[in-house]
Specification:
Blueprint: H1 3-20, H2 24-35, H3 40-46, H4 55-92, H5 111-124, E1 129-130, E2 136-138, H6 139-142, E3 167-169, H7 174-183, E4 191-200, E5 212-222, H8 227-242, E6 248-255, E7 258-267, E8 284-293, H9 295-300, E9 309-315, H10 317-325, H11 338-341
Parallel strand pairs: 1-4
Antiparallel strand pairs: 2-3, 4-5, 5-9, 6-7, 7-8, 8-9
Helix pairs in contact: 1-4, 2-4, 5-10
The structure holds zinc ion.
Length: about 350
């Protein structure tokens, strides 16, 4: 077969392959096989040295013509295959903007965290510092420094979980006050603090008791602090929490770490004092315990009770949340049921 005939048949064969393929990789393979350095056209051009001088330009011209033609055909095929590929990709990746979106679930802060932060804000506004402490405490800071020596009967009300004879889980946030009092430098001014946090008692869980609950205790120590300061402070807190029309009343009570001690009631925010199921038809809601810091407590923290006096109070965010939202079982706060918790969206 003459070289021209070989080239002619190569051209026909290659054009068929080009139009038959619809795959870009395969097309590239055809290009390499036909036009590459080891391909048949290069082979033909290499064999030209054996031709006569007359034949050479004719065969060479023909070979070049075929090479240009095939190069152009491959390029055309490539452009059209790429267009098809692009259209397929576009068709596959169509975004339907009318489809409803997937709702992103927004968590909220726990209702008790919300209440505690609200109370913290009130006291930060009055110049108090917020101090957090250990949940695992020593008997010394949890009881003894709160005027509850080992044989004190009031310890019965605060039985807890013991890790050893001397280490326990705190029953109140009071040990934070003891630790802060002993460090406070009174030459720099009064001590005003609140301590929020989890506390633990050996209680049988029921609708109003939980072995774990929360407290926020407050403490102010300075010269000339009186019961009037305590009453005024609590009044401000209750008005901010339950409305400007609220009043408070103090009733005598007993705590080992305060003397005198009081129970504090707030006028009912639901009925305004008329009497309803929230206030058990008394018009008043028992909300917290308070009192003047016992001189023994001051003395044990290295503070001279002849020079300094102070007041302290403690309330339960769990109880505040129950009252405000009409929750009748404290255990709801700790069961992590989203149907319950997601009702409290906060602000
Ligand atoms: Zn009421």
């Amino acid at each position: 077969m003459s070289l021209q005939a070989q080239l002619e048949s190569l051209k026909k064969e290659t054009l068929e392959k080009i139009s038959a393929t619809d795959d870009l990789a395969q097309l590239n393979q055809i290009r390499v096989e036909t036009l590459g350095k080891k391909g048949p056209i290069t082979e033909v051009l290499r064999g030209m040295k054996d031709l006569s001088p007359e034949e050479r330009p004719i065969v060479g011209g023909f070979a070049n013509e075929i090479r240009d033609l095939l190069t152009a055909e491959i390029e055309n095929r490539k452009v059209s295959l790429e267009a098809v590929a692009l259209n397929n990709a576009l068709a596959k990746e169509t975004l339907d903007v009318t489809l409803p979106g997937t709702k992103v679930y927004h968590g909220t802060r726990h209702v008790l965290t919300q209440i505690m932060e609200e109370i913290e804000d009130i006291f930060i506004g009055m110049g108090y510092q917020v101090v957090e402490g250990f949940e695992v405490e020593s008997d010394h800071y949890n009881f003894e420094r709160m005027n509850l020596p080992k044989d004190h009967p009031a310890r019965d009300m605060q039985d807890t979980f013991y890790i050893s004879d001397e280490i326990l889980i705190r029953t109140h946030t009071s040990p934070v006050q003891a630790r802060t009092m002993e460090k406070h430098d009174f030459s720099k001014g009064a001590l005003r603090m609140i301590s929020p946090g989890k506390v633990f008692r050996r209680d049988t869980d029921d609708a109003t008791h939980s072995h774990q609950f929360h407290q926020i205790e407050g403490l102010v120590i300075d010269k000339n602090i009186t019961m009037g300061d305590l009453k005024g402070t609590l009044e401000v807190m209750m008005k901010k929490m339950f409305g400007e029309e609220r009043n408070i009343r103090l009733r005598p009570s007993y705590f080992p770490f305060t003397e005198p001690s009081v129970e504090v009631d707030v006028s009912c925010f639901k009925c305004g004092g008329e009497g309803c199921n929230v206030c058990k038809h008394t018009g008043w809601i028992e909300i917290l315990g308070a009192g003047m810091v016992h001189p023994n407590v001051l003395e044990m923290s290295g503070i001279d009770p002849e020079v300094y006096t102070g007041f302290a109070f403690g309330l339960g965010p769990d109880r505040v949340a129950m009252l405000r939202y009409g929750v009748n079982d404290i255990r709801n706060f700790y069961q992590n049921d989203l149907r319950f918790l997601s009702q409290f969206k906060g602000e």
